[in-house]
């Protein structure tokens, strides 16, 4: 009884701010402007399959880059002294203390044709290069903004890995590649799974980064959804259908990641 009473505020919060909004999205996705049931909104999404594929591809590339960068950083961070770990954690989180828009604007200043990077390269007779308004700029913005979301879960898992396991593997003659493949990777799978989810989900649904660094030439799913609600077309039924499909895609990706994580944990326990 006490447990139910304690859970009541959370259940009320979930109902008001999660279940009800999802119900509204499903309703508008499956109806037309007159309120009649229809599947045309979902069917018409096929016209935007290129945008959906581009969003998934860029988000997957950004997630992979974050994983490659974050893994050694997290390992080195977990092996430092406690005092240095706190300082390094602060440095990792420091960019997140600034506003998301300001960080993205900063990259616009750096990447534009007359930006700081091209000016610096100009001293060596290089450039100017077209760096802004490209898919690479969008991926760069994703990696910069979401890299801490990959580092922190990996660090949380790696700090629990007993150093004696690594020493035992070294005593048995394992190379660093074997230690990484047979010791570190299996034990850090939960952190990898969490990090992939925390980076991929906001990356595939972002619209600020693609608009500011992609220049409108690299539309993502988030941009299309925003245009349906705030653009000239103003088709909230189609926007709701896109949001519903995006949510399903994210849930499928999370399910695949969690399944892989559970299989790795089961193999490790055996």
What do you see in this structure?
- 25% of the residues are buried.
- The protein starts with a helix and ends with a helix.
- The mean pLDDT is 87.
- It is globular and about 70 Å long.
- 76% of the residues lie in helices and 0% in strands.
- The protein is built from 13 helices and no strands.
Features of this protein?
about 270 residues, mainly alpha, about 0% strand
Residue ranges: pLDDT <50 for 5 or more in a row?
none
Strand content: under 5%
Order of helices and strands: HHHHHHHHHHHHH
Overall geometry comes to globular
Question: What share of residues is helical?
Answer: over 70%
Average predicted confidence as pLDDT: 87
Summarize the entry for a quick read.
With 270 residues, this protein is mostly helical. It has helices at residues 2-29, 40-43, 49-78, 82-93, 100-111, 116-122, 135-158, 163-171, 176-187, 189-205, 208-214, 221-230, 236-269. Helix content is 76%, strand content 0%.
